[in-house]
Amino acid sequence: MQLQKFEIAAPGGQRLSAILDLPVDGAPIAFAIFAHCFTCSKDLKAVYHISRTLTRERIGVLRFDFTGLGESSGDFADTSLRSNVNDLIAAAEFLTSRFEGPRLLIGHSFGGAAVLQAAAAIPTCRAVVTIAAPADPRHVFKTLGSAAEAIASRGEAEVTIAGRPFTLRKKFLDDLAGIDPEAAIRDLNRALLVMHSPLDEVVGIENAARIFQVARHPKSFVSLDQADHLLSNLADSRYAGAVIAAWARRYLASPAAATAKRPAADQRITARTGPGGFLTEILVNRHSLVADEPVQAGGTDQGPSPFDLLVAALGACTAMTLRMYADRKSWPLEAATVRLTHDKIHAADCETCETREGMLDRIEREIEIEGPLDADQKQRLLQIADRCPVHRTLTSEVQIKTRLKA
Fold first, then answer.
1. Gap between the terminal Cα atoms of the chain
2. Is pTM, for the whole model, over 0.85?
3. 149-165 confidence digits (pLDDT tens)
4. Does 310 share its domain with 253?
């Protein structure tokens, strides 16, 4: 994942701090905007991991801090749901002017309420996702507790949310009193995905049920089973991101954009690592892969190791070569299964190897042939396996030239 930092001009002269997460290489098939939860920020771990999962599917994600939060300017006390909506519209206009308009809006908790309100004002939006969102934004009164009365009577009051102090003013409450949340949901006119955990103790699951009931088709619901409100478990945020990516593809890109390849002048495979760890994102034409190392080797085991990918390439090439040969001969090959292992051995233990010192790589390959083939045909396929292009590459002299990009 690549990221670019921006400042976005918001209403009232404020500056919104934003990060645009992009695929490892090439242009995104579409852009999304992520609206974070109440008093949170764009750097919440769940936001980061969902964005990273989406970029692997070539969806660019703009995540930003609402006015008065995170690194954005302004006074949080002067904000409201309406100001959040205006911030979202400003972010959409920024994307439209610099890249292209967002086709997907994602909102977490109070951010979910904001995207439901903002969608109608963002013409490029085709799909909306809410995560742990309240059906009625006035649900936040529950979070405020007795402070809501103090705000109403005194005009403002300091409240503690997630252990941090914030000042809220009466206009925040007045703004919520004047909205019709069900009208925004009913008239959304966009595809809607509602995601919620039945164990959410901050915003109950009944909110998801109400959103889903009021919304019109196309609409979908996915239970984030066992997740908490903030999706603090890494597996939960990755799961949410994977589901969003799979669901949203139907609505995001035109068929031409979804199948578009990079220019013929640049058919390179790209691999990119982030600031820490071994997790590596790989782009092969329009196909996204990841590589990693096992936990015992210092990785996070989110993908196969580089050697695993190398050996997998040999297995895939072997199976394809057998299929191609059998088809050309019109042999009744029903399936070819290739199983491989890779390890290191002492050169001295290899009787047929020219190298006599140090360690060598050894790949063992077992081929299972299915179909009514006779012994001679099976033996011929075994010989053909050694002719697969990857096998030839691995057993021949390979020249690799490396340079630094200017």
1. 21
2. no
3. 888 888 888 777 767 78
4. no
